[in-house]
Amino acid sequence: MCEISIVVPVYNKKKYLTNTVQSILNQTFTEFELLLIDDGSTDGSGKICDCLADSDKRVKVFHTINQGVSAARNYGIRKAGGKYIGFVDADDYVDKTFLEKLYGAIEEKNAGLAVCDYYEIKNRKKKNHNHRNYHSGNIVFEVLRQDLQCIVWNKLFVRNKIKHLFDEKISTCEDSIFCARYYYDNNPKIAYVNETLYGYLVHNDGLTSTLQNKSFLGINKLLVINRKISDRINDERLRYLAIHHIYRVYYFGIYTYIFENLSKGPMDREKLSIIEQIINDRKYQRIIKYIIKYSRMDRRAERASVTELLLTLLSILKLKRIIYVFSKVRKCLEPLTNR
């Protein structure tokens, strides 16, 4: 039995796959298996997987029909034989000490979760994401405030502590929900590695094709599980600050991300229909009002930016076309609003 299983879902990643796998195989820690789950690729990625398996006995390949990234990760979890399990996207990069340092931290502290810093590359620009201590003295608040459970791939999980698999019925927030459920189920001790060991590549793919058939269900599920986690904060003031942050992530983080992706390319009825779904949702309306109200009530709450205030106003007025145009030119306005 190996110590770590690394699961890599693969769907049409021919351009990046070899470099990603090589960064994993170059690890200074060697007691791991690499599970490549070919999710019905049509660009030749499956053949690359087979070639990589022929060159290194630690690589295991599984070919499946296309069912999506959540199904591929779940398949990998079921096939994993390691004590710990980690997830790497097929177009990302890991530092050669990624496994060594996460494994060392989780073992040394007898923890239920290990986490490292990461960076993302978008439009050839690199941005670091580091752990931040808000000095609250409350572990649950720190987890929520740092958005620690929002991403799945900069972590090591204990295999036998995974009680909920990835939700295959949703198309948004499935990785965040997996992490939040893992945290809620186990209340794990966390081993932090304050080094940037994971590189995440952000693509500019639109979301129109995935935002259908109750796709906002994922956002609502994430809100529910995060609210349950926040209930564990005994300090009432900290709990409300955490809820305020959850709502800001729920509204400004996720929905604005959707607005930005919809704004790419020509305007059409389908995109406007999705924006209309957002701004007519009662929960969405209630939350954006709460965001503004609570930041006025408590000086420690997060401030609303000018951009956020404008999007909120336009949302309340239900001006879907103006929201669409505003999200399209937001990048041009950011330097001015930041000043």
Major beta sheet summary: 9 strands, mixed
Percentage of residues in strands: 15-25%
- Given the C-alpha coordinates, what overall shape results? globular
Uncertain runs: none
Description:
This protein has 339 residues and is an alpha/beta fold. Helix content is 47%, strand content 17%. Strands 1, 2, 3, 4, 5, 6, 7, 8 and 9 form a 9-stranded mixed β-sheet that branches. Helix 8 packs across helix 10, helix 8 packs across helix 12 and helix 10 crosses helix 11 (306-316). The longest helix is centred in the C-terminal third of the chain and has 27 residues, at 236-262. The model has no long low-confidence stretch (mean pLDDT 87).
